[in-house]
Amino acid sequence: MTEQTSGQLKMEKIVALCKRRGLIFQSSEIYGGINGFWDYGPAGVAMRRAVEQLWWRYMVEQRDNVEGLDSTIICHPMVWKASGHLDQFSDLMVDCLDCKKRFREDQLETPGVCPGCGSKKMTEPREFNLMMKTFVGPVFDEEHVAWLRAETCQPIFVDFDQIRISSRQKLPFGIAQVGKAFRNEINPRFFTFRSREFTQMEMEFFCRDDESMKWYDYWHQERWAFYTKILGIPESRLKIHHHEKLAHYAKAALDIEFEFPFGWGEIEGVHHRGTWDMSRHSQFCGHELKYFDQERNEHYYPTVVETSCGLDRMCLALLCNAYDEDTAPTRKEGIEDDVRVVMHLPALVAPVQVAVLPLSKKLEDKAEPLFKDLRRCLRADYDVSGNIGKRYRRQDELGTPYCVTVDFETANDQAVTVRDRDAMTQERVALDKLAKFLLDKIQPVA
Ligand code: ATP
Predict the structure, then answer these.
(1) Cβ(274) to ligand 1 under 6 A?
(2) Where do the domains of the chain lie, and which CATH numbers do they carry?
(3) What's the CA gap between 261 and 301, in Å, rounded?
């Protein structure tokens, strides 16, 4: 099998698993779906929230010098004029006159040849703006046009002074926001990788220009550590792509890329944005947004270093990294089939962190209170149906790191068996030590 077809096959299996287990599926499916929009089901939303919370904790709550913001999706239209999105946020697209498909010009492997059908009848490149348009108020005319934000960072620049003053921060400090962004992507593809509605997690760090490269390096390292240490993605599946072509105001930019089954793809950008944002908003809003540095007795525009990632791409990277099929010794777990689909998700983000499985319905009196107790501090599930081997498989497929089996011995020895998804070991743990035993394994060290 070629690398491309095995990657395709793996991707198909991941997409099918996500649908089957209520992680991610097409939006509005009963109407045939809508291209580029995805819904997260019960398991998906549990995982997505956990990933978002990890990011927020790491980027905001554990730092003195980063504040949070939750702004509206629709802002004053001038925001997008100032940011340059209305004039420049476009992709150059070419159309195939034969198969009628549309492609981003910079993504054509062979310019002038349709990657869909091989035709050479391609149009000249044309600009397509990616901003999504709407109207505010009852009159649908050009005066009432507004835009769904294409990135979460612009309101951070707009609210910079509000936040700086109310939080009493001095430079250098950052502002972070998590929220929806919308882009009218011409070719949504690779599952959630390129969607038209997605969630961004961005942090804009405001600093003095002469210190900006130091901060750029710092955030580069911090973000790399987030993927490798907190999310547990192996370094071999990540790489840094340093941009050579830079915006005129930027000193540096890099992407953190992950090796998806369909190839390397960007999951995060770390960008030096110079003083562009603050100077542009100053110019367009008519107020001076320069920062007064008391120590230096000087007014200047803060330089911005940004970390920008997509929550959906991060979840997709985690799912792709976790997917595995192994031939675990299953017979002793009570089923014949020896290929096990298992998601090696980090316990911190697994939709279910512990599943309580009574061996028999007769044990529910003991198992149910245990489940209720565990779910006070962990994402827990309870399953009594089917043989124990099948129940383990269901949990493996969802990435549940620990299964707790209540058996006929439990009443005597006041203990349960804890099965580890990855090591496939089974350990007897006393009931009164169980919660601590699991929390010690699951909670982050820091
Ligand atoms: P690409 O080149 O893939 O279109 P970009 O360079 O336009 O991405 P940025 O504008 O830097 O991306 O956005 C920052 C992050 O937001 C990306 O690293 C990605 O994780 C996420 N993102 C951007 N566009 C999309 C999308 N259409 N669907 C899902 N996530 C996205």
Answers:
(1) no
(2) 3-80+134-319 (3.30.930.10), 90-129 (no CATH), 352-441 (3.40.50.800)
(3) 43
